[in-house]
Specification:
- By secondary structure, the chain is of the alpha/beta class.
- It has one domain: Acetylglutamate kinase-like (Carbamate kinase), CATH 3.40.1160.
- The protein has a seven-stranded mixed β-sheet, sandwiched between helices.
- Helix 1 links the parallel strand 1 and strand 2.
- The two termini are about 30 Å apart.
- Bound molecules: uridine 5'-triphosphate.
- Uridine 5'-triphosphate (UTP) binds next to helix 2, helix 3 and helix 5.
- The site of uridine 5'-triphosphate has 25 residues, from helix 2, helix 3 and helix 5.
Amino acid sequence: MYRIVIKLSGSKFKVPINLDVIKSLCTAFISLADEGVQPIIVTGGGAVARFYIDAVRALKSDETTLDELGILASRLNARIIISCLGSMAYPIVPSNMEEVSLALTSGKIVVLGGLYPGHSTNATAALVAEKACANLFINATDVDGVYSEDPKVNKNAKRFTKIDTKTLFNLVNKLPMMAGTYDLMDPLSIKIIERSKIKVRIILCSPENIVDAAKGLPIGTEVVVSI
Ligand code: UTP
């Protein structure tokens, strides 16, 4: 089966939830399923994850506990997508790789949040893409690709149309690794992509862009494995 893992930006899960946004994303996932693709959706934790992480960090919690809160929040977001997809979705949010494998056998759209502390849902999505032997991993995020610097800070930052994993690793390796702050692609996700030569495209999250990226159109940034 042609499988595409789609990391869905946590920024799509506002408080309160905008159901029109969720519905239009789900329409895109269903259109992919109708074309014979098995979409595997990994939902970010978004604002809810950060609210809980910030509150509990102020109580001097350890980072693993904070990561666990982020994972719980991302799973709540997965539940919203499952509810919206109805019978097109596998009804359970997998919480480990065995459950992911089982869910994949259903042939339905599989939706999950985070799995393990210590990384982001991007790394989860890379691990799931590896496990599912996915044909493509689309990182649908809140920027339209990878930039030489943070485009929100420097307006002159340059967007890459293609970036190799070594350059990407060097860019993200400078960033902090704390609960709620793992960025665009964390180091673990890049290592997984590299070792299994997973095809990756990083795009601005919208239903149209997800469908275009799934068709192989050259939008956002393509990540190529360094030799
Ligand atoms: P994410 O970092 O993936 O959500 O998970 P986000 O910030 O909404 O991501 P974007 O904006 O879509 O990129 C929230 C937090 O949950 C924990 C981490 O602390 C992470 O920062 N988490 C998530 C894990 O520890 N493990 C996971 O597998 C997923």
